[in-house]
Specification:
Elements lengths: L1 H12 L1 E5 L4 H13 L4 E5 L5 H11 L12 E5 L4 H10 L4 E2 L5 H9 L4 E2 L1 E2 L2 H9 L5 E3 L9 H5 L8 E3 L8 H7 L4 E3 L1 H10 L3 H18 L4
Parallel strand pairs: 1-2, 1-9, 2-3, 4-5, 6-7, 7-8
Family: Belongs to the KHG/KDPG aldolase family.
Pathway: Carbohydrate acid metabolism
Protein name: Bifunctional 2-keto-4-hydroxyglutarate aldolase/2-keto-3-deoxy-6-phosphogluconate aldolase
Length: 223
C-alpha cells in the first residue's frame, strides 16, 4: 500500500527535483530550498559524495506521510546503477529509486522491498522490458533527445506505459510534456545552475516556485 501511495504522491506533485552537487551538505541545502519553493519530490543522485548522508539528514527532517504538513517531502535516490547501491540508499532512508538505465537486479530488489523504482529507458523494447519486470513508471531519459510528442508516439503500442521525462524539461516546455501525458517530470540543472553560479541558493526557491506554478497551470483539469 505504501508503494501505491508514494507513486500517487509523485504523480500529484508532478515535479521531481533531480539534485547534484559537490557535497552532501550542498545537496541537502539545495533540497531544502527546492522544498521551500514547493517541490516536494526530491531525488538525491549517487554522483554526490556521501549522498546517502544527505538522504538520511533530509529524511530526519521531512516526512512523506502527511502531504498537508509543513515538513512534507518525499526523498529518493537517483543515478542508481546497481542493486547494491539501491539497497544502501534504502537503508539511508530513500523512499524511491531512480536509475538512468534498466538494471534487472535493481528492479527486483526494489520490488522485494515494495519500493517504487523508476529506471531509465529510451526505446519501446526497453520500456516493455521494464514493465515486464513490474516497473510502474519508466523514466524517459535523456528527455532532451525527444520532443513531447514522443509520449503519445510510444503510447501507440504501449498505452499502459507511465512515462516520466527527465533531462531537457524546462519552464518553456513543461506544459507541452504534461499535455502530452507525462506521469511527472524530472527537473535537473535548470533548477540549480543559476544558484550554483552565483552562490545565492534562494534562487532555487524562486525557480521551484515558478516550476510548481507552471505545473499547476498545465495540470489543471487533467484528473
Amino acid at each position: 500500500m505504501k508503494k501505491i501511495q508514494l507513486l500517487q504522491q509523485i504523480r500529484d506533485a508532478g515535479v521531481v527535483a533531480v539534485l547534484r552537487g559537490s557535497s552532501a551538505e550542498q545537496v541537502a541545502l539545495m533540497a531544502e530550498k527546492a522544498i521551500e519553493g514547493g517541490i516536494r519530490i526530491i531525488e538525491i543522485t549517487m554522483t554526490v559524495p556521501q549522498a546517502c548522508e544527505a538522504i538520511t539528514e533530509l529524511t530526519k527532517t521531512y516526512q512523506s506521510e502527511d502531504p498537508s504538513g509543513e515538513k512534507y517531502a518525499v526523498i529518493g535516490s537517483g543515478t542508481v546503477l546497481d542493486a547494491e547501491t539501491a539497497r544502501a540508499t534504502l537503508l539511508a532512508g530513500a523512499e524511491f529509486v531512480v536509475s538512468p538505465s534498466l538494471d534487472e537486479a535493481t528492479v527486483r530488489l526494489c520490488n522485494r522491498y515494495g519500493v517504487p523504482v523508476l529506471p531509465g529507458a529510451m526505446t519501446v523494447k526497453e520500456i516493455t522490458s521494464a514493465m515486464e519486470l513490474g516497473v510502474d513508471v519508466v523514466k524517459l531519459f535523456p528527455g532532451n533527445l525527444y520532443s513531447p510528442s514522443i509520449i503519445p508516439t510510444l503510447r501507440g503500442p504501449l498505452p499502459q506505459a507511465n512515462l516520466m521525462p527527465t533531462g531537457g524539461v524546462n519552464l518553456e516546455n513543461l506544459q507541452d510534456w504534461v499535455a502530452a501525458g507525462a506521469f511527472a517530470v524530472g527537473i535537473g540543472s535548470d533548477l540549480t545552475k543559476e544558484a550554483l553560479a552565483s552562490g545565492d541558493f534562494s534562487l532555487i526557491t524562486q525557480k521551484a516556485e515558478a516550476y510548481m506554478a507552471a505545473f499547476r497551470k498545465a495540470a489543471a483539469g487533467r484528473y
